[in-house]
Amino acid sequence: MTTHPANEPRSEQYSAKGNTYEVKCFGAGPGGIDENAEAVEWLRAVSQGFHGPEPSKESLEKDLAWLHGEGVRLRAVYSQDPVPPAALSDERPVATYCSWDSSLTLGAQTQIPAWLVSEVTVRPTHARRGILRRMMTADLTEAHEAGFAIAALTASEATIYGRFGFGAGTFNTSVAVAAESGLKLKAPSVGRVEMADNKAVAQLAPQIFEDFHELTPGSLKRTSKWWDYVSGQFDWHTGKADPEVRTAVHYDGNDRADGYVSYKFVRGSGFKGTLEVVDLVSPSAQVRIALWEYLCGLDLVTEVRHPNAQMEDPLMWGMVDMAVYEVRKRYERLWLRILDPVAALSARPYRSHRKVTVSLVDSLGFADGLYTIDTTGQQTVVERVGDRPRTDDDAAGKSMPRVELPDGADVAMNIDALGSLYLGAVKASTLYYAGLIKVRDLDALDDLQSLMSTSEHPYCISPF
């Protein structure tokens, strides 16, 4: 059972490389800018860290509202050393971090509480002083103590988070579909699509997304700030409304709204241009294909681009000419960190009857040990069966110790590899041949692969 940690202000001091810092934990209060001076400076530091513009007053008010409404836990690190002339005030954090409670879908109607991590920045002039490790370790410890089995984040730099036990757990693609001749499909599309009123879509969107979330492995619950963004009523990046966003809604045979898309037209030479998808949501792949058909059928559109498409996309297979479906980028969307293997592995569905003993290496200690996953009975049984032997890398305090296969274990891996296997985004054999999993023999590898395989590829459409 998970608990919700109290978001009470607290602080501590520490020193590193001759600098003194104060680490503060706090939340955004119910008031606006005038009542949330620390949170305002935190938001300014976040925008600065990601090279964004100085936040507008409206942007700050909106961010404060969702931070308070979602109970987001803010962490900030402040320099305690004298500030030289013209430098940023010591009221501006040199590092930021936040987390909040969400839910991760594992299968149809099956979810697990998830601890989301976001807005991680460290000012380059204060790098390599242990600031990120201090914030991350304290926050994940709090998550573990609160009973959360899994933490998740999206990464702007993929090389950072493996050493904290996060593994890439879902993947998306950025695609472009040629549209000058429309979208030719092998099977007729379902329902009908109508252009829509943006404000009305903002009211419909939360329930349509909730239907998607309940049924789609890899989906994360969205925060309230999404709906103004996807309907063009407020752009986080510019701090104002975006009048170029248009929307359309899909209806089933009973005129029930079961999907929507928001998009922008980007003019090229002359009158023609491309469409860029802002958000495309439905729990049904067939409905999503119908929304694609609508986009590709709009006049003056030469190409439709979607930066958040499925890794294994039914659209491509449903097209008469899949050559006009171009994947321009493949990227990891969701990174997962298993904090409690017993709870996390007990919660997910399994499709095969196997028994595997796994040795997990976790330098932070949350998940380290030997675990047995047994799906041979009527109910899945996952239990911790012992400690794994210590190694020289453990004694040296390495953040990612070398993986060894101890006696009694069928397979062994670092905890980040389990995060990648957890939703079925990658085969165990792929990680084995990459040198990331050790196995007793190939039968053990086959058992692990069968155990962790899923019926559909995970799909997350909620960056955060």
Description:
Helix content is 25%, strand content 31%. It has a 13-stranded mixed β-sheet with strand order 1-2-3-4-5-6-13-7-12-11-10-9-8, sandwiched between helices. The protein has a five-stranded mixed β-sheet with strand order 16-15-14-17-18. By secondary structure, it is α+β, with helices and mostly antiparallel strands. The radius of gyration is 24 Å and the shape is globular.
Task: Offer a concise description of the structure.
The protein is α+β, with helices and mostly antiparallel strands. 25% of the residues lie in helices and 31% in strands. The protein has helices at 37-49, 57-69, 131-145, 198-215, 226-230, 285-296, 314-318, 341-347, 392-396, 415-421, 428-433, 442-452; strands at 10-16, 19-26, 73-79, 95-107, 110-122, 150-153, 167-178, 192-196, 245-251, 257-267, 273-281, 301-310, 325-338, 355-361, 369-374, 381-386, 411-414, 437-439.
Mean pLDDT: 95
- Poorly predicted regions are none
- Side by side, the strands of the main sheet go 1-2-3-4-5-6-13-7-12-11-10-9-8
H/E element sequence = EEHHEEEHEEEHHEEEHEHEHEEEHEHHEH
Shape field: globular
Strand content: 25-35%
Q: Cα distance, first to last residue?
A: 25 Å
Q: What structural class is derived from the secondary structure elements?
A: alpha+beta
What is the oligomeric state here? single chain
Q: State the helicity in percent bands.
A: 25-40%
Q: Characterize the largest beta sheet: strand count, sense, and whether it forms a barrel.
A: 13 strands, mixed
Q: How many strands in all? A: 18
Rounded to an integer in angstroms, the radius of gyration calculated over CA atoms is 24 Å
Q: If helices are DSSP runs of H or I spanning 4 or more residues, what is the number of helices?
A: 12
